[in-house]
Amino acid sequence: MKRSxxxxxxxxxxxxxLAAPALAGGNANFVLGGRKLVDDNFxxxxxxxxxxxxxxxxxxxxxxxxxxxxxxxxxxxxxQKVVTPFGTDFTGxxxxxxxxxxxxxxxxxxxxxxxxxxxxxxxxxxxxxxxSVTDDTSSALYIHxxxxxxxxxxxNLGVDVRALGGTRVTIAGLDTNANYRQAGLxxxxxxxxxx
Length: 195
Prior knowledge:
11% of the residues lie in helices and 63% in strands. It has one domain (2-20, 28-191): Beta Barrel (Porin), CATH 2.40.160.20. It has helices spanning 2-18, 40-43, and strands spanning 26-37, 44-45, 49-50, 53-63, 71-83, 90-104, 112-129, 132-151, 155-165, 169-171, 174-176, 180-191. The chain is mainly beta and 195 residues long. The protein has an eight-stranded antiparallel beta barrel with strand order 1-4-5-6-7-8-9-12. The protein has a two-stranded antiparallel sheet with strand order 2-3. The N and C termini lie far apart (44 Å). The radius of gyration is 18 Å and the shape is elongated.
C-alpha cells in the first residue's frame, strides 16, 4: 500500500520535470459525469443506501510533441455520493491520481480529435459518517477513450468513457474493490505546439 502511495506522485513529478519542454503542445480537459462502482454487494447496501453511483469530477492533462508516437497524460479524479439512512449522513468517495500515455489523433484541418489512453492509478476509497472514517488505498490500471471537438482555436468540448480495475481495498473490515465504469462530458482547452 505504501509503495503505491509514493510511486505515482514521484512518477508525476519526475515526468513533469523531464517533459517540461513538451508542454508547448497539449490539452487540459475537465470531466464532469457519473461513475458506477462495480462491487454492488458492498457499495449498494440495502440498509445503508446506494453509494455505488457517484458524481464525478476530474482533470486530465496530456502533452507531447508531434514526433512522439504517444503523449504523456496525468491528472486527478474524484467522485462521491452522500446518503442519509436513519437521519445520519454517510459519504462514499473514490479519489485517484493517475499517470499514463495517450494517443490523440489530429487530422489536418479536422476539428474532431478522437483519443485513447491508459496507465496506472493510485486509488483511495473512503466511507465516512456517524463519527467514523474508514479508507484504504490501492494501485490500479485504467483505460479511457473518447473524442473532443475544437470550438474556436483552443476550447475543447467532448465525451470521455473510462474503466478502472485491479483494486483491492478493505473498508470497515470488509474486503472489496474500488473498480468502476464511468462516462462524462469533457470541457477544456488545448494549446498549440507553437504560435
